[in-house]
Known about the structure:
A nine-stranded mixed beta sheet has the order 3-2-1-4-5-6-7-8-9, sandwiched between helices. The model has no long low-confidence stretch (mean pLDDT about 90). It has helices at about 15-25, 35-45, 65-70, 90-100, 110-115, 130-135, 140-145, 180-195, 200-220, 230; strands spanning about 1-5, 30-35, 50-55, 75-80, 105, 120-125, 150, 160, 165. The chain is globular and about 40 Å long. By secondary structure, the protein is an alpha/beta fold. It is about 40% helix and about 15% strand. It has a single domain (about 1-230), classed as Ribokinase (UDP-N-acetylmuramoyl-L-alanine:D-glutamate ligase).
Amino acid sequence: MRVLIVGGSEEYVGAVYLAALAAFRAGAESVIVMTPEKVAWALNALSPDLVTRKLPGKRLGLKHREAIMHQLKTADVLLIGNGTGTAHGTQTLMRALMRWQGLKVVDADALKALKGNAVSHAILTPNAGEWKLLTEKNDVETLVKKDIVILKKGARPALITSLGTKHIPRPDPGLTKAGTGDVLAGLCAGYLARGLDLAAATERAAATSSHAARLLAQKRSHGFHYLASDLLGKIKRPRTTRKRG
């Protein structure tokens, strides 16, 4: 029931904020964010619900690996990549964390670091650009054999598993906005923490995000002009339907 989020940078404070609150909304009992210290203080100011571990420096890097691995001893699910940026040292850290054998959600800038199929037991959530990079540096057939579920986002979203490809309902147009992917990743992590298996957590996260978007779009005051943070207020605590065996 415990989620650890490793992400953020001084340029992208909002990404980990959205992901962390979404994980809570999905039902995680504990969410800890490990992020550069100035980002952590900003998160604490934005929400009293967030617990942070303040890492020295302006950006995440390999020097933080030991502290993160120590914190992972108390985590059930790891979410990485939201707002980290693509500095060389940060990408090296992301690759190191993907080798952790626990349940993971790999999103955003962490997907850009993945190469050689060096990840397992994870949900990957690429948008169109990240999908292109993912397929250039990795083999999808090999990935899904390693207990990987891929949620390919875009106009024709698909759930890719070892059982094949399943197309899922087209999302609301508003879900292309910045930050909505961070909400989706947080939902995936939260549902995993509640005990759903990788595929079930991914499908539930996509459905929850789409439902919240439809509720907002139905309001004349929002239409397609809602923000990623607006989605959080429309997410209800779910019922768990399919748990890991």
